[in-house]
Amino acid sequence: MALLLCLVGVTAALAQGCLHCHSKFSEKFSFYRHHVNLKSWWVGDIPVSGALLTDWSDDTMKELHLAIPAEITREKLDQVATAVYQRMDQLYQGKMYFPEYFPNELRNIFREQVHLIQNAIIESRLDCQRRCGIFQYETISCNNCTDSHVTCFGYNCESSEQWESAVQGLLNYINNWHKQDVSMRATPAFLVSPAFRCLEPPHLANLTLEDAAECLKQH
């Protein structure tokens, strides 16, 4: 069975929300917030809807519940944004709604957006399973909207030669990481995972191809 080993740098940052990183987010949500008072007959819906829109980004990060870093490709971010803006624009095209309808629809769109982002991030990671060895793809960090990348190790090798080459590539990756300045390097996620004790920093200095292969076979 194909397995997946993700070698992602772990960094701490303030939560912003994936959709927040899209180029049209500020323009779109500024319009949504400024026109919210025209969408409901009931005055109580206005502050509720306004709060939902204002907290959209932070609430998104709280609801993602991902075991992997929230990093999304630009292509998938565009797809999510297009779907969300389309739903929101359709909602705003209507006239005033009856009480509670408008904020409830905002919540529905929000939940749909969270699922789209979760699926987009996970799908990109699972694509690594169809590869053999080290693979890297460009992403945007949902935490701070900076360019980032994800480096993965795919186990889906079709021959012993491919597997040996893949493990050698991983070994080279680890050795290069080990030589970097401690204060400058980002720690790959697999090095802080309890499942891979044999690949923790104390063992890297003398790590051999055979040791790395044996460690990977155990997981």
From TrEMBL:
Gene Ontology CC: one annotated term: nucleus
Pfam families to which the protein is assigned, alphabetical: IZUMO (PF15005)
InterPro entries assigned: IZUMO (IPR029389), Izumo_fusion (IPR052868)
Keyword Transcription: no
Keywords recorded for this protein, A-Z: Signal
Keyword Zinc attributed: no
Signal sequence annotation: 1-15
PANTHER family: IZUMO SPERM-EGG FUSION PROTEIN 4
Family: Belongs to the Izumo family.
Annotated protein name in UniProt: IZUMO family member 4
Source organism of this protein record: Piliocolobus tephrosceles (Ugandan red Colobus)
This protein's encoding gene: IZUMO4
